[in-house]
Amino acid sequence: MRLLKLGLLDLVSVIISVTVLLFMEFIYISPVKMTLDPRSSVKRGEHVAVVCEGRVSYSSQVTRSHKVTFFKDGEALDTRETQDITVSFNIMSARVSHSGRYKCRVEAEDKNSDSSEVLLTVTGLQTPELSISESRIPEDRGVTATCHARDELGASFAFYFYENGEEIKYSPSDKNEFKVQLNFTPGRKTLRCQYAVRLADNIVKSEMSENITIDVEALSIKADISVWPNRNVVEGDHLEVNCTVSGSNSSVHMRLLTNKWHQEGNNTVSRGLTAKPQDSGRYECILTTGNVRKTASANVSVTELFSEPVMTMNPPLVFEGMQFNFSCSSKTIMTSRISHGDVMYTISKDGRSFKADSMMTAAKSFDGNYSCLAEARGISKSSRDFIFKAKELVSTPKLEVLDKVVLGKTLRIRCRSERGSLPIRYTLKHGQQWVASETVSQPVGYAVFNVTIKDEVDNLEFSCHAQNDGPQGENSKQSHRVIGELLSFLVVHIESHEIEEGNIEEGDTLKIYCSVQKGSPPITFSWYRYQQKQVLYTKKVDNKFGVYIVERAGKEHEGGYYCNATNQSDMVKMASWKKGLIAVLCLLVLAGIIGVVWYKVKRGTKVSGPAASQTACSRPHMNLLPFPPPLL
Fold it and tell me: In what residue span(s) does the Ig-like domain sit (predicted)?
């Protein structure tokens, strides 16, 4: 029963949905099309029809009205309610301002469709007309000029006015004419105008109007400027400049100015001053009345009585301990007015008076900021600041080795002087041979040299020379240093208690020495047995020899021995079998590149030196025997 009820409900829902669909109205708008009739480019005055075509279909087949809207450059022009498929927007007499991008939109209920944009271009602008209020005027009265574009349409214009071909006025306007007040200087003037129509994406300018001639009569009024005593004066002279008006009894505004100051007044402006070199230049007198502006000018030259003093030091480069002095003088003095003796000079140090001796010895106490003051006839001038700091002689450089000393590898050696005025030239010397030079000009600077030790017998003594611009004989210092020693050849010898003629008795204390003639400590010595790679004993020492000790020698200690040595350079020196063999057989105490010891412990009769190579003995003893090269 429940299933039957659910089935009936589903059937009812389907029937309702079908009924709604049957009574629902569908709207369809066909693609909207826009055209320009007669064409997209027309001349001024032609008729243009902007045509919009768009069909609206309804599922009920009942004819209804729809909306058509015309747009120009994105702004709505006209909207209509219509049932027509084709609707036109008519431009009866086209103007340039009608140029632009047009489109239309068709709307029905909640649906709409736009056409594509089409571009309309209208060519041809009316030639402007220019009119003026009067053609003959005095220079203090202006002219009212009007530029007309009577038949042009639109709300975005720009107007231009030209005097003798030069633009003198520009103004935008929302009307097709523009009125302006113009002022002119005396003379005959030619006036004309032009206008432009502003479109969405460009500006179209008209032709020029016809010329109009204006005669401007000059006024008798003028500006005068006078300079007393004359336009060329000497520093310290009294100078007076007057700006006045002539040809008018009425009050006029006057202005006297230079590039440094200005002064204003009515009818007359005067300026009095004590002449200084900086007062030289152009003085201008300006008269203003109404729209009239008159000018007069004068160039004034002020000659220095004496020039700004210059402070100098002799010699120009002073190191600590050197003799020096200061001098102060003016390069030019106007001798027609004063003598050299009339100019008094005073030297100051750090803002305080300083009495300079004829000769002084440079020291830190003289370091400071110096200046010189020159005075004559109430005029004083200061020199530029002179900063004095005695230069430092270069100190003995410090030589530092930055890397390990390794045969065949490059190592860096640094040279640096703690004191000394820049620039400092550093030179590295290896033994008696110059290696390289470097000039340091930066504070906290140093020179780094790359050096390669190419041979074991190379001299490892280096010296660093530092030199600056100090006095000859005092401007150079040097330091020496042996940077290390490479391992030289090894020396090996054997020592034993109660050894007689090369025999070593069982139970004796055996000492095997290993040493180098040259090498930078610490040195690490290692001892090995023949045909064994395992080290017997290793010792690091701060001298040039090491010893391996066997407290009680026995038969188990028979055999060949060898040693090697290394230092910080990681160089290894080992035995050479042939030299070691010869030395063992001949000397017992070996001297050579390496020594290797072969001995045998026996019980029996002690054997003398010549019988050391025999295999039978009457009593136990230690015997030296020849052997093959060691296993390295």
Answer: 31-121, 217-301, 471-575
Q: What pLDDT score does 569 carry? A: 59
Class of domain 27-123: mainly beta
User: Could you say which architecture CATH assigns to the domain 397-487?
Assistant: Sandwich (2.60)
Q: Which H helix or E strand runs over 19?
A: helix 2-23
3-class secondary-structure state, position 135? coil
Q: Is 222-300 a domain of CATH 3.40.50.10190? A: no
The residues of the chain that CATH labels 2.60.40.10 are 27-123, 129-217, 222-300, 309-388, 397-487, 494-566
Q: Residue 223's Cα: distance from chain center in Å?
A: 54
Q: Which CATH architecture has domain 309-388?
A: Sandwich (2.60)
Long-range contacts of 197-205 (CB under 8 A, 24+ apart): 197/96, 197/97, 197/125, 197/152, 197/154, 197/156, 197/157, 198/156, 198/157, 198/158, 198/172, 199/96, 199/97, 199/99, 199/100, 199/156, 200/73, 200/100, 200/101, 203/158, 204/96, 204/99, 204/125, 205/125
What tokens appear for 464 in the block? Answer: 């660093």
pLDDT digits (tens, 9 = 90+) for 133-187: 999 999 888 899 999 999 898 889 999 999 999 999 999 999 999 999 999 989 9
pLDDT of amino acid 483: 65
Pull the structure tokens for residue 514.
């290993």
